[in-house]
Amino acid sequence: RLIYLVISLTFLTFSVVSSVWAGSQQNSKQDKPKVVTLDKEVVVDRDYFTASDVVYIYGTVNGDVYAAGGQVIVDGIINGDVLAAGGQVKISGQVTQDVRVAGGQITISGQIGRNLTVLGGNIEVTEAASLGGSVVGAGGNLSLDTSVPQDIVLGFGNITLANRVEGDVRAAAGNLILTPEAQISGDLTYWSESDVSLTQGATVSGEIVKKEIEGLEGRDLKQLREKAGPALAGFWVMTRIVGFLAALVTGLLFVNLAPKYLQKSTDFLAAEPWKSLGVGLLILFLGPVVVMFTFITLIGIPVGMILLFCWLVDLYLSKLVVSFWLGQFTLAKLGKKNKNLNLVFLVGLIVYSILYLIPVLGSFVKLFALVFGLGALNLTFKTVYTEARKKALV
Questions:
Q1: pLDDT tens across 305-360, in order?
Q2: Calculated CA dihedral for residues 167, 170, 176, 177, nearest 10 degrees
């Protein structure tokens, strides 16, 4: 059931993000989106970093691509890895190495030389796509219509396999469907409350194993709840109180030590929400990778420790930025403009804490604060640092 909960929350998160993004595109026709385009004739002989409302990559990149935005389209030749995040992501070009994508709506129809990793609400890997390695993914719905030469590991609400898989398939799903074109050369191991749907013509050469989520049942579970229930409830209340007070103290320090920085971050979040989303997702996923790489090099361990510390601080401060934004938003809706920044933050933190306690919605709020706040915080840092360099202050 824990697997199903994770799948449901992932689906909810990215479905809502995708829907809001689509609605904002329709309702803001007067505001022209910012577009970044790498033309077909352009060749980049290094890693390519970009973030905007709309990103088009038609050229050639002799390195890795890191792209984020409301809409991201990769239709060029990438002689390296692709790491992309956005409301809508389409990979239709040629990528010689790995592809890692997170988004609301993801379409894969290009050539991928190695492995594919996806996290999203709705994911379609079309028959025109070509994969050279394994597939790992999680989210709401997955339609896999192309052949896979290696293993597959999936966790989705709904999974449809419609082509050949040369390796094993391991999947956790609400519904798992194998169409007549599906052929699995290895074993099929799955976790689900319902049996796999094997359409006539689908074949599995290895074993088909359905596994249950094991847990305590009956009298043992009842006794455990009776003994541990009050203690766990008290511990839960205590952690929430301590967490609120810690966030309040840290936030008030942030407000008083760097008020302009905090205000710029919330302004960025309000003016560039999808850019904040994309950059936040990139930092969330890329941070641990960079830290691990520095640790592997051994000589880079001190740098890795500093980066890890900065990344963890970033994660914590992100919810403070969103709390401040919530405070401004709430007071504005009530028709009360308050110049007392401490009060604004307190109101926002209270609203955030209340929303966080709501089942299901609280998980979405936490993810929203983490990703959007993380992006706004670091976009502001880039702006402030650039201005400081121009004035020769650093």
A1: 888 888 888 888 888 998 888 888 888 877 766 677 888 888 888 888 888 877 77
A2: 0
**How many residues appear in the chain?**
394
Q: How many angstroms separate the first and last alpha carbons of the chain?
A: 52
> Closest by alpha carbon to 196, among 186, 211, 181, 206?
211
Residue 7 to residue 38: CA distance in whole angstroms: 35
Secondary structure (DSSP) of 300-327: THHHHHHHHHHHHHHHHHHHHHHHHHHH
C-alpha to C-alpha distance for 17 and 13, rounded to whole angstroms: 6
Name the CA dihedral angle for 280, 285, 287, 290, rounded to a multiple of 10 degrees. -140
| Class of residue 350 by CB neighbours under 10 A (exposed 0-12, middle 13-18, buried 19+) | middle
Looking at the chain, list the stretches that DSSP marks H as alpha helix, in order from N- to C-terminal side: 2-27, 218-257, 259-271, 273-296, 301-333, 341-357, 361-390
Phi, psi of 190 (to 5 degrees): -145, 155
Task: List residues bridging with 215 in a β-sheet.
Answer: none
Give φ, ψ of 251 to 5 degrees. Answer: -65, -40
DSSP 3-state assignment of 118? strand
Positive or negative torsion for Cα 379, 381, 386, 391: positive
φ, ψ of residue 320 to 5 degrees: the values are: -70, -35
User: How many angstroms separate the CA atoms of 185 and 39, rounded?
Assistant: 41
pTM: 0.57
Beta strands 188-191; 111-112: pairing state? unpaired
